[in-house]
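Worked example 4.2. Below are the chains of a multi-component assembly; read each line carefully before continuing.
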Amino acid sequence: MRLENAEPVDSVLDAAPCRSRGRVETGIGFAVARPSAGFVAVLLGALTLAVLAGLFVGRSSSTDDALQSVFFAMRANRVAVAFLSGASLAVTGAVVQGLFRNPLASPSILGTTSGAMFGAHVALLVTVFALGGGGALNVAPEMMMPIGAVLGAGLSLFTLLAVVSLRVSPLALLLTGYAMMMLFTGMSSMLTVLHQEAWELNRAVAVLNLGNISAAGPRQVLLVLVLTLGGVVPALFSCSSLDVLLAGEEEAAALGVDVKRERFWLVMWVALMTGGAVAVGGSVGAVGLIIPHAMRPWVGQRHRYLLPAAFVGGGTFVVLCDVLCRIMPMRVEMPLGILTDLIGAPVFIHMLVRFSRAELSHD
Amino acid sequence: MTEALQARDLSVRLGQRELVSGVSFSAQYGALLAVAGPNGAGKSTLLKSLMGLVSCAGTVQVAGLSVGTLTRQQRAQTMGYVPQRSTMAVGVSVYDVVAQARYAHRSGLAGLAGFSRRADPVVEMALDRMGLLAMARRTFDTLSGGEQRRVLMARALATEARVLLLDEPTAGLDVGQVLQLFRLLGELRSEGYALLAVLHDLSEVRRHADHTLLLAGGRTVAYGPTCDVLTSQRVRDVYGVHAHENAALGFSLDGAL
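Applying the procedure described above to all two chains together yields the following structure tokens:
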């Protein structure tokens, strides 16, 4: 005998039509919500369009074949870096939103991006002053900056984790992220002030701050590829623990999740992805917030669908933003990070209003 | 017959305070053990320490195995936990909540498992048993308190654990829902589940529990067959601390006898 519905009215209205359609016998495949084929097609279509636009929009009118192929190679690098950094930031956003059970969390909101920027900044300084002279800036930073960015992102995240383990409310998590952002931005600014005379260095830092991928070369592509895959692939294997972690730390532990271990590793992957994205693209904000939010209505809360969708969606979004930056009628090319921030701010406010009642108040 | 769950000298310490001290008891398969006591007696803490959610001193054996030797997943396969209230994130479907129970049965790198088109049969059966098939697609946060409780119960069933720990399963339910819950618990008991439930209403304890562990201030006041434990004198002693409850509770209990 089974327990009947608590409200008899419900059991008549809800259960009866379900049974009569024979769904019980055929298995509740209907309950296993999956992204529709239409959505996948739209997503991949958008990706194709974005890549084509990235490669061909603003193509020079020069008829010189050699020049054309140089342009093309530059654009291909640029598209690849834009895609990969957007993809990793979006996946990062989806992972931290699940991990901290907070729809408003994202690498920039939690101060992870600031941490990575600070790390990259320190790495730049170390490179310049340890190796001596501006000449080293052309080669070594490509190896140093990513390491610094990953370490900085990790530092910021583990500080955040230490606070979160005190079981703060969702709102306090966001405010802690704000504190992280203040801390790391402040330290970065201090470094800038301390080395005001190093003009070359400060220019590199300014480019980093604004978010810019126009100078991407094959090395940057390889670098961000390695870091992105190094973070995304292991994160995909944590999908089912992420799904269970949505129930909260205590319930997840009761359901068999080794919460501390899973958290540690997920934070490592997040640090890798954020560090990689920041090291090549600088501060490209808001992607980690907007993209998972935009994907959820189509793919649901399951991370095994959400992460791949965020990967493709995030990459597409940043490639498109980059194209927009390029064709914007301005005297200089608009830095990518400015555009994403301008899009991100209203989205964040929209979500804050939407979730503040449902999510931020409980716990 | 092996004991389903056996705790010896269980103590939980939080900083300077000892929330549970030296509690021993055992729970049998096919029986309901009620944990009763006034607020702050350490009932929920006791349940959490059995689940390994708070660290404790003492020994706990589940199905004859010491819990210290079990991995988290193994423990989750043998013991199901129904919290009083879930901290579930917004937007998770009922099906996915119940499917969380299957985590304990996944191994190694199977993190991507579950791509299959068909619903998990165990999840489906648990949903069906709790009368939740029709709302499998709704999101957990849109359900009423009673419905959420049924989802959490279904999730505990889907772990396939034979020992179920229920933290105040009747709190916030209306009379009809309470009756249905005890009917379910009765069925589970006759199917051989070992049930351990924190209960507040002593008349419910008297009616449904085979054994009772009465706690006060983290210590065992009495433990044994329910009718031996719940004498009216002892109930007055334990609950009399709360002056406003004393008369009414004593009166209602005498009536239920």
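Take a moment to check your reading of the output against the notes. Chain B touches chain A through 66 residues (CB under 8 Å). The first helix of chain B runs from residue 43 to 51.
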